[in-house]
Each structure stands twice: as C-alpha cells, then as structure tokens.
Amino acid sequence: MTERSSGGDARTEATYLIETPQPVERVAEMMAGEQSSGTFVDVPGETDALRERHAARVEATTELETVPEPSLPGSKPPADADADDVTYTRAEVVLSFPLGNTGTSLPNLMTTVAGNLYELQPLSGLRLVDLDLPEAFAAENPGPGFGIEGTRELVDVHDRPIIGTIVKPNVGLSPADTADVLEPVVDAGVDFVKDDELIASPPYSPVEERVEAVMDVIHRHEDETGDRVMYACNITGTVDEMLERHDAVKDAGGNCVMVSLQSVGLAAVQTLREEADLPIHGHRNGWGALSRCPQLGWSYAAYQQFWRLAGVDHLHVSGLRNKFTEADESVIRSAKAVQRPIASPADAAMPVFSSGQWAAQAPDTYEALGNTDCMYLAGGGILGHPDGPEAGVAHLKQGWEAAMKGIPLEEYATDHDALATALDYYDDR
Amino acid sequence: MTERSSGGDARTEATYLIETPQPVERVAEMMAGEQSSGTFVDVPGETDALRERHAARVEATTELETVPEPSLPGSKPPADADADDVTYTRAEVVLSFPLGNTGTSLPNLMTTVAGNLYELQPLSGLRLVDLDLPEAFAAENPGPGFGIEGTRELVDVHDRPIIGTIVKPNVGLSPADTADVLEPVVDAGVDFVKDDELIASPPYSPVEERVEAVMDVIHRHEDETGDRVMYACNITGTVDEMLERHDAVKDAGGNCVMVSLQSVGLAAVQTLREEADLPIHGHRNGWGALSRCPQLGWSYAAYQQFWRLAGVDHLHVSGLRNKFTEADESVIRSAKAVQRPIASPADAAMPVFSSGQWAAQAPDTYEALGNTDCMYLAGGGILGHPDGPEAGVAHLKQGWEAAMKGIPLEEYATDHDALATALDYYDDR
C-alpha cells in the first residue's frame, strides 16, 4: 500500500507487464493517456490544468527481454519500421492514477486499471500484474466480514488448516442424496464442506431444500461430537436470488454462502456483502480465461484485491500439483497475495487450496506459505481413501501435522495408518 | 437456436475451439465430464442413472490444424508420449448440457459453459466460440427492454444509423464543462451522446449534477429543433448506486443509462434491467482480456448473449479500421451476432460501432452488416472536423447516405462539402 503523493493527492499504482514493437516509454505514455484522456485527434477544451490534475502518470518503465514474434495478434509496429526488422520488447510499466479520478468505487477502478488498455494498438501483450491502492479503498469498502480469524472461530479450528471437501458427485443429486453423500464425510471429521460450483439452485436441488438437508446432518454431528462444521452453500444467482438464498441458509442454521464470483460479478458481491450475515466463500471458476495466457489478462495478485475489498472471505487459489494447468509458483503467489494486507491484517482473506489435493502436498504448501491460515480441500483425497472417508480426513490431518512438525511424510506414516495407506494408494494413481 | 431433444429435454449447445496434445475425442469427453460430474478418483454414489440424466454430452468433434508448439503453457501430453514427438491438435468441439442442470439462470449457465474448463490439463487452448440456447432462456430472462426498435423510436431515427459521439476530453471535466463541451455537438445534430467509460460518478462530476447539466442542453436543443437526442449517462457503480443514478437520470428527463458491463457483472445488470425504465447502453471495456488471445477466452458471439438475455439494449463492437487491435472480420462477426435473434427479433440488441470512426468506414460497414440498425459513434471524427462539429456530424450522415445509395464517397463528396473536407483532412492523419 503506497501513499505516494502529488500535491497531497493519493494515487493508485498499477503495474503491467507489456509487450510492444514500439518504444516502451512512448507506449507507456499512450497507456496513461488512454486511461485518463485521449482521442485520435486533438480536440479543443483539453486544458493543461485538467491534464495536470487528472492525468495518469508513468511512474516507471523497466525493459525486459525482447522476442521475435508478437504474443498476441493485432499490434502495429512503428510506421517507419522495416517489417523484417521488427522485434517485440517486454517491459514492466507502472502507471499511477489520481484517486480523484475514480473515488473509491471498485467497479470504476476496474474500468480504469483494466479497461480498454488490453486492445491498445501498440501492444502485443498486456497483463495487469499488481495493484497498490491508496488506503481510502480499504477505508470505504467493507472488506471481508469474517476473514481468517472470523472463519477460524466459526469452526473452532485455530492451529492447523481448515480441512474440507467438495460434494462430488453432484450434478443431479437431490437434496436428500446430497445429505446422504455428505453424512459419512461430516462424521469423518471434516471442518468444512462445500457445494460444487456447478450446482447453485437447479430444479433438482433448490438451495432451500438442500441447505435444510445438509444442516440436519451437520447439526446432528455437532450435537453428538461438539465439533463444528462449516457448509458453503452455493447461492450463485441474481442479486435477489442470492439474498433470498442467503437468508434461507441462515434460517437453516447454515454458516457460509458460496458464490461464483465471475458469474455474478463485482457489484452483486458488493450487495451481498452489505446484506449478508455469513462468510462469503468466493469461487473463481472462469479465472483461467483471464489469466492463462502469460502476456494477457490479470495476475491474481491484482485481481483478488477487488473481491476482498468487496467483502469476500475465502478465495480459491487451486493447489500445488493440481489437476489443472497452473504452475506451483503461481499458486503460492496467489495464496500469499490473498493473505497479504491491503491496508490492515483484517482485510486478508483465507486462501482455499483444492484440486487433486491429498497429504502429499501438505509439506510443500506449508513451507511455501509459512503458516496454516488456509482451507485445504480434498475431494477424491477424502472420499476416495481406500479405508473410507474417516481415514481420508485423518490422513490429511496427519499430513499437516507432519508438515508442521517438519517430519517427512514417510517417517510420520510409520505410526499413522491413514497416512501410510494414502501414501501407498494415491502415489500410484 | 436448437431444440435438440434427449427424451424430450432441451439442451444448451456450446461450441469450443480447443488445442490439445492428447486425443481430441478423449479430451472432449473429459470436458463434458468435468462440467457435469467428475473427480480424480472414482467415488461411490455416481450412478449410471444420474450420469444419463445430467451428463454433458459430446455432440461433435472436428479436427483442424496441428501446431508444433502449445499456444498456452501448462498442458500435459499423454503419459506415454515421446517428448520430442508431441504436437498440438486444434479442434472444434460441441458439447451439450441438459437444461435441467442449470435451469435458465444466466450466472449458472456461465459457470457451466465457461467455468473451470479453461484450465483443464490436456488443453493448451480453449475458447468458447458460440452458444445455442434452448428457448427457455429467452422466455425466462427479460432480454432488452428497448432493443433496436425501441431505441430508434426514442430518437425518432428510422432509416439510417444512429449517429453519436463520446464526450472527450472527459476525465476531470465538471458537469458544467461537460455540458459546454456537448452543447455544440448536440446543436450540430447528433442523435446520441455518451459519457466516456472512465467517468461514472467521480467526486468532480456526480451523475446527479452531470445529467441535469447535459439534459438542460438537450432539452433546449429539442425545444428549438424538435430533434431528439439520447444521452447515455454512465451510472456504473454498486447496485444501489446504479439504481439511484438511474432514477436521477430519469428524473432529469434523461433517456438512457450506460454501464461498464464487466466492471459491475452480470447479476448487477440483471437487477438494473428489472428496475430500469430506460435503455441500457452496454460498454464492454476489459473485453480484450477475455478475447485477445485467439486460443483462449471467449468469442463475442457467445459472450454477448448473456448480456442481451440479461437486458442490455446496446452493445459495443469496436469498428472497422479501429484504433485498437481487433480485426475487421471480428468486428463484423460481433455486430452480426448482436443483431441475430436468440429466440426472436425482439431480443436483438443494437451494435455500437466506435473507435477511430469517420465517414470512411461507412460503406464497408453497411456492406458487411447489410442494414443500418446500429449506432455509429465518432469522437475526433465529429469534434475534430476542421469545419467544426456541425460539419463533423454532417459528413457522417453524408457518408452513410453515400453508402446506402451505393455511391463511392469521393463521388458523393463532389457536392457534399462536409464529406469532401473530411476526406481531405482525415485521410492524411
């Protein structure tokens, strides 16, 4: 969080990775102009005073490597360039925007730092890699209502990751069947269960019925064991639907709502946060479309700040050695970014590790993250354990115990059966 | 719009362009599995009956070219492949999803057709290129409240494009200054003016004050000439802010609201449509991040359907020979897609051409589109005309007259001065 001042004015700093066949400094100036004031012909009325007060500014440019081919189509080399001679320079560019241009509006901040820039003609690549926001954004947006500490209190788990699972199989399951699938997992000792992102409130499983059925299982378990379990019920839908479903979850004694962030969008999440009494579990499905091309889109370090400021408590980050395409370094960068304060530790969210996770990734995850303030979700890693879900949960807890104690998994497995079985079983798959 | 049936059930068809080092047919099956029911280990409970009723289905696969290098990082070749021998096959894949999986919920449809698919491990490319929706989506979502005909009626322009402009310069302009900049353009005879996407309701120009100032100019002009002018006032913000600003626009006699679609998101636009009495002008800033990599993201043909079903009336499509990076063929495909009925002509929206537009692009735009049901916006093309904005507007109308009559611009310019001046002036720039 930077508070660079220009005549006392706070500025938003946005860091981009660009690629261009044109001179980097000139392109950076064009980016700044496009996102504060510009058109293809100079027009009357654009005064120097206006420019001075509201212009975006190039704070820094750092040239990186040069590549022979453009990463993205459509860019234009300089008019005087020899076509055979064109190369594409990658560079880090830092722009700053006066806070007064956007106020603390998150949607308008998004338009300013990640709007029409992506298609500027000199660019054969543009990725928003980080954001450094004036404190006013955290002061005037709600941030997570529960965050890391609030979530830990709700499940009464304080000294290890929150261990959870996803209801799979899921598409087509009735509420009663969902409860039946969850019952052994809940009884096996998970701290957290969540719906799949594909099921919100379809005809075969309305939220109101599903949450009743699932909470019955959870309440019975809590009564019997005293252990608390959080259920992130997928309420994704229109704003009205989400608010109604949130209330249905709350009325059923539920303690978390899940939303597909990109499918509903930022402003809907802002409204939900305003009205919600429960933590918001943020699913990022669709994120690959914005991030998977290295020279385009967004890095999660920038992106997740919008959702946290809007009020999301838990943010998915994939997992180490996941079954998708994201590299481990990127997963860890995301998770650390989700935990990093924007203005204060209270605005941190809880990173959610998932996708092909079992005990094997616990030591590396712990070492890279440096703490246990995360959710660690396993689907097949629990439900697929050869000795059943109780052993599935146990092996995850044992894996994290080993990680926290600095004991290799194989060694810890010698007197921890669930872990030993898992090491034999999953390693071959 | 397909109504393929499976036991009488309607299905959503989604067409993807994929790239993969693995066998296309197997990858297509994996895509279908991931988006209906799947985990990395088979688990109990997944019955054949559930699969039958709810499984996504591979409807078609068509192999295209093979490339030696992956377009995106992170994909995995088959386990038994010789690393030196791996190639990447591009293919068109059509999947279908039972309507019962999502109901007619647009956010949940988005998660299903464009969610976690983008990061599946066998894929070195995935782009959602088209959607063919069951009629139920159009029946149960509102669609545009005004669309092409409703918009034409509001400005009383029926036989040519709606000619408009953007307030530029803009960032930093007070409401009074905005009105001063717009006054000569309104008096010059435009049908439509819009705010820049960078200005919604910042501290220096609150919507409530800006719309009063601008509508004063427009009302005075309408009183004097009888010509109507539409002003798309940028109300982008939280849901509550947008609804309040919509009402302020309406109270001031305004006749259109503009929203940065991706910055607020789908569910917020759905709420706005439900409450709004004015047309919704949809700005797609940020679209490049989802579309500019040819092997990733979305095609506009698929994407724009969500916004139209949600109720957006006007959708930006860039323009021919624009100052950005989009190719002309892509611009025209987008514009045609926006006009193409989903279930009926009433759900068509009006494509908005802009970016570096002047009369020069009118003939090609008209020829490619085959009609004049569009907005045609020029910034510098009006305000920068050497003979002033009246000549700027006149030259655009003359350019479209020439296009509709099939007369070359140069010929038409011989007795149309504004066009003649523009041809001399802009061609050199």
Walk me through what this model shows.
2 copies of one chain form a homodimer. Chain A is of the alpha/beta class. Chain A is built from 19 helices and 14 strands. In chain A, the strands form 2 sheets. In chain A, strands 6-7-8-9-10-12-13-14 form an 8-stranded parallel barrel, surrounded by 6 helices. In chain A, α7 packs parallel to α8, α9 packs parallel to α11 (266-275) and α17 (389-405) crosses α19. Chain A is globular. The interface between A and B is large, with 103 and 104 residues.
Question: Cα-atom Rg of chain A, whole angstroms?
Answer: 24 Å
Strand fraction of chain A: 15-25%
Q: Residue ranges of chain A: pLDDT <50 for 5 or more in a row?
A: 1-8, 39-43
Tell me the structural class of chain A.
Answer: alpha/beta
Mean pLDDT of chain A: 93
Of all chain pairs, the largest interface belongs to: A-B, 103 and 104 residues
- Side by side, the strands of the main sheet of chain A go 6-7-8-9-10-12-13-14
Alpha carbon gap, first and last residue of chain A: 44 Å
Total of DSSP H or I helical runs spanning 4+ residues of chain A = 19
Number of strands of chain A: 14
Shape of chain A: globular
What's the oligomerization state? Answer: homodimer
Query: How many strands, which pairing sense, and closed or not: the largest β-sheet of chain A?
Result: 8 strands, parallel, barrel
Helix content of chain A: 40-55%
